[in-house]
Design a protein that fits this description.
35% helix, single chain, alpha/beta, 22% strand, 170 residues, six-stranded mixed beta sheet, Nucleotidyltransferase, domain 5
């Protein structure tokens, strides 16, 4: 692992980074995997740093850490990402969402275990925005929480691309 591997940088799309630890620099190009972390399902999106385009990829069904890693590792092997983006839920009043601690742990585990930088992005309203994007595309998703999770991960990655300063964390 290189210098800074295993550390995570936290970034909000609405405010300056809350943690400014030195992390491995993010290349200007390469694949990014984004996660809308949930305790039962994890929406996943994929994108390319140089193009700044995000696509929904899949929904992982996993209720234990063992199941999560068993589902995530093949995606990492297939897509060979240079960066992970993990949505961090928050509330309008700034109080951390109860799942926030688990999201942080997941992002830290990705970075530490795989030696690939991870950033946390404020994901407030990502599920709502994902549902809106699905509606606008004419998708039929009623009752399909997996489709919403993928679309939410896509919105998280789109937010990262829109606010990242050319894909390099602040």
């Amino acid at each position: 692992m290189g210098a800074g591997a295993g550390r995570i940088q936290e970034r909000s799309v609405t405010a300056a980074p809350a943690v400014a630890d030195a992390v491995s620099p993010v290349p200007e190009s390469g694949t990014v995997l984004a996660f809308d972390y949930g305790e039962k399902r994890i929406g996943v999106a994929v994108g390319e740093l140089s193009l700044k385009i995000a696509h929904p990829l899949t929904t992982l069904i996993a209720e234990s850490d063992v199941q999560r890693w068993a589902a995530v590792l093949p995606l990492v092997a297939e897509w060979q990402p240079v960066l992970f983006v993990v949505g961090l839920p928050g509330a309008a009043d700034g109080v951390e969402h109860p799942v926030g601690r688990r999201c942080r742990k997941f992002a830290q585990g990705l970075a530490a275990r795989l030696g690939i930088p991870a950033v946390l992005i404020d994901e407030r309203l990502s599920s709502w925005a994902g549902e809106q994007a699905l509606r606008e595309a004419g998708a039929r998703f009623r009752g399909d929480k997996g489709a919403v999770d993928q679309a939410a991960a896509q919105q998280i990655l789109k937010s990262y691309f829109d606010h990242s300063g050319h894909g390099i964390p602040a």
